[in-house]
Amino acid sequence: MKIDIYNQNGEVTGSAVLPKEIFDVKFNADLVHQVSVSMSANSRQVSAHAKTRSEVSGGGKKPWRQKGTGRARHGSIRSPLWKGGGVTHGPRNDRIFEREIPKKMRRKALLMVLSQKAADKQLVVLDTLELEKGKTKEMAKSLVKLPCANQATLLALPNYDKKIFLATRNIKKTSIEDARNLNVLQLLNHKYLLLTKESIKTIEKTFAGKN
After folding, report:
1. Which domains does the chain have, with CATH numbers?
2. What is the pTM of this model?
3. Which among 8, 126, 146, 207 is placed 20 to 30 Å from 174, CA to CA?
C-alpha cells in the first residue's frame, strides 16, 4: 500500500510503500474488541471500598439488654442496620478485574488496527519532525496544516524526544507516545495516527521482528 508523505508545512513531498505485514492485516473485530476490553479492565483502578461489620470501629458491648426494654433486640452497633455500622454487599477493593490476553493476540490486534487506520486514510506520515524552539505554538502550527488538523491525533515518535514531548502535551485532542509502546486502546481512542518515516521502521522492528 502506498501512502503520501507530508512535510511540516502540510505539503506532499513524496510517497512510501507501507510494509504489508504491518499495514495490510485482515481485520477481526472480535479479536480487537477482546483485546481492547481486557486492556481497559487491566488499567482499571479499584478504589471504592466499603467496610463490613468486622472492620468498622466500636460495638464491643451489647447496646442494651436483650429483654425488658421494649426496644428491638440488638447485639452490636456495628450491625448494617445502624448508622455508622458495616455495609452489606458494598464495593470492595479486593475485586479483580484483570484479564490475561496472550502477547500474540495483543500484537495481532495492534497490527489489525494499524491496517485499518491505513485503509481508512487515518494514517498521516511526515518525512521528519523537527522543532527549532520546542514551543507548543510551533508544534500546533504544524499540526493545523496536516490532514489530522483539529482531530483526535496520536503522535508516535521513533524514540523519546523531550523537546517534542513538551511541545505537544498541552495541545488539545493530541497525545504523544513512543512508537515501540503503541497499543490497541490508544489507537482506538484517537481518530488519526501521526507517524514519521522513522516511526514506521521502529514499528516494523518492534512488532514484526525485523531489524
Report:
1. 2-44+101-207 (3.40.1370.10), 46-96 (no CATH)
2. 0.82
3. 207
